[in-house]
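1st attempt posting a full record on here, be nice pls
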Amino acid sequence: MAILSEQLKEQLRARFEERLAGPVQMRLFTRPGSGRLILPSGLGCATCDEARQLAEDVQSAAPDLLALEVIDVSANGDTHEVPTLTLGAPGQESRIAWQGLTAGYEFATVVDAIERVSRDEAGLSERTLDRLAALTDPLEVMVFATPT
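the predicted structure (as C-alpha cells):
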C-alpha cells in the first residue's frame, strides 16, 4: 500500500527530474514484523511499516538516482533506533538522519535533503563553510523538531 497519493508521487517525480543531479543512497533501519506494541525490552516498532512504504514511494519517484537499502536491525544486531532514515552519497558514510516516521512536517526536509545530497551542496554561505572547515574536533549537530 502506498503512503503517497498518485498526484503527490507525480509531483515528486517532476520535481526530482528537474532538481536531482547525482545518485543518493537512502538507508532505512527498521525492525520488520515486530508489531506496533513497544515492549520494555525495546522490541516493537509502531511506524516501521509506514516508514518503509514512504521510503519506497520516495525512491520510486526517481529509481535511477535513488537507491534504497532497508536494514533489519534485529537480523544484524544494529543499534540504530527504529525507524531511522539516513541519506548520503553512494559509497560514503550517511551524514543526515531522521529518527521516526518522516511524514508530515518532516517530509519536506527529506525531499530538500535528497536534492542537496544529489547536487552535493550544503546550502550554506561561504563564510559558514570556511568556519566549519577550520574546526579540528569532531562535531555532531542534532536538530529536534516538533510541530508544537
